[in-house]
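A note from the maintainers: we've had questions about how concatenated examples are separated. There is no special marker in the raw files; a new sequence line simply starts the next protein. For clarity in this README we add a label.
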Amino acid sequence: MSRSTTPQTVEATVRPVPRYGVFIGLGVVLGILVAAILTAVGSYEPSRVLDVVYPPGQVFGFALLWTVPIGIALGGGVALILDRLARKRARVVRVQHERIAEADVDTGTSA
């Protein structure tokens, strides 16, 4: 086997890109914190219509159903805005691109 390299110079765009998973994870954490705060400051008086008192754990669960998706959307939105702003700071650089191809050489011997 012989190796042949073909180097060439190409242009590439380099720009910082936000990590979407980190921003979405921060949005989830923010949603959990907001749900905990809403649960802590909520009043637990009986409902006038049903005459039922919901326990704090159940209130926290229902609050999570709203606050976590909102947090995910906010985190993703911030990441998208940062991505758009990063496009303005993109740089074009020249890079050396090499492609190594291995060629099979028949030795002429049979097994």
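[label: protein 2]
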Amino acid sequence: MTSLHRFPVKSMRGERLTRAWLGPAGVAGDREWALLDDERHWASAKTNRSRWRLVDGMLDLRARTAAEVGPTVVEGPRPAATTAASDEAGAPAVVVVTLPDGREVTAGTPEADAVLSAHLGRELRFDHGDDGHRWGRHHDAAPLHLVTTSTLDALPGPDGSPLDPMRLRPNLVVAPAAGGDFAEDAWVGRLLRVGDSLLRVTERTERCVMTTRAQADELPHAPTVLKRIGRANEACAGVYLAVVEPGAVAVGDPLVPIPG
């Protein structure tokens, strides 16, 4: 595994980890929070009439985990899979949101609701855990998302450089031992061993306009990204996964497809 990512708040930029715990809801603390409007739509960098509401400026915000709860480990020794507690229990982790002007607020507080409502121009409040729906988190179609470096290489920009993985917002980025472009497509239905966890690849990930959005001063608006994915691979890039056996993972762990 070449990199490991967590997005503590839905549709905000996230944080890069060196190690983490994968449980039934994916990376511990991933998409644990979202902003909810007064019509009970979740604020997003894309739109969906029944669930997500497009709110400009979401990707200008960054969320980071300031204090860990449960078995997630960002630094320090690797947790033992046999002794780590479930990440589904206990209080949510403390998540700090940084605004473009440098101000910071803590997710789930009245101050954060007021500051982000004023910044984004509509009444919003932090929502934790999605009321137990969708793995108890604010995920789209699965609790975990993976992309290979072969897919990033197959979608180069105008300068020939690989696609930045943050366009796709994966949890796991891995370098496949073989398989060519879009190597992960061939893994649908298979089991994968990564670190102490066992994962099942459930389906390919169909991309949306969110891949084109600017992300503060880190990624510019890129209107051709979605078209490139559409031409190259039927608008799919990456795969969704379910966690079959929870466990610790770390950058550098090999990905091992299970025969069968």
